[in-house]
Write a structure and sequence with these properties.
Mean pLDDT: 94
Shape: globular
Strand content: 35-45%
Strand order of the largest sheet: 2-1-6-5-4-3
Largest sheet: 6 strands, mixed
Number of strands: 6
Low-confidence stretches: none
CATH architecture: Roll
Helix content: 25-40%
Number of helices: 4
């Protein structure tokens, strides 16, 4: 990937975006989205618009920072795809989520973000005996 190309810029955008999630930097995260962006965690209902995405992101303010380990990432002029493992804590329990993420980029911002993963490990963190 040649520095200064759309591919390199999009690759850097998504890496910086995920790093912001690790440190829970809500303003940075929200600045990465277009106003009409869509976040769709495929097991759940899509979240439409930066304002609605902001409401979702702020729910993580009290969740301990995690690690989002990118295993592979590929970028084009308008799409970035990655395979990663998210190591997070939910309800006091460590959760490991293997994820495939797809990011559509428009004008240097994320227009659509889709994540494909099994929701079972996250649900298990909230299960009561």
């Amino acid at each position: 990937m040649t520095e200064g190309t759309p591919e390199a810029s999009n690759n850097a955008l998504v890496r910086a975006f995920l790093a912001a999630w690790e440190r829970r930097d809500t303003p940075y995260i929200l600045d990465c989205f277009t106003d009409d962006a869509v976040y769709h965690s495929i097991p759940l209902t899509p979240i439409v618009g930066r304002e609605a995405i902001g409401a979702f992101v702020t729910k993580f303010a009290d969740v301990p920072p995690g690690r989002l380990e990118i295993r592979h990432q590929i970028a084009s002029a308008d799409v970035v795809m990655n395979e990663r493992t998210d190591y997070i804590t939910l309800n006091g329990s460590p959760v490991v989520l293997p994820i495939c993420g797809v990011f559509e980029i428009e004008g240097g911002r994320i227009k659509a973000w889709r994540e494909y993963f099994d929701l079972s490990p996250a649900k298990a963190a909230y299960a009561t005996d």
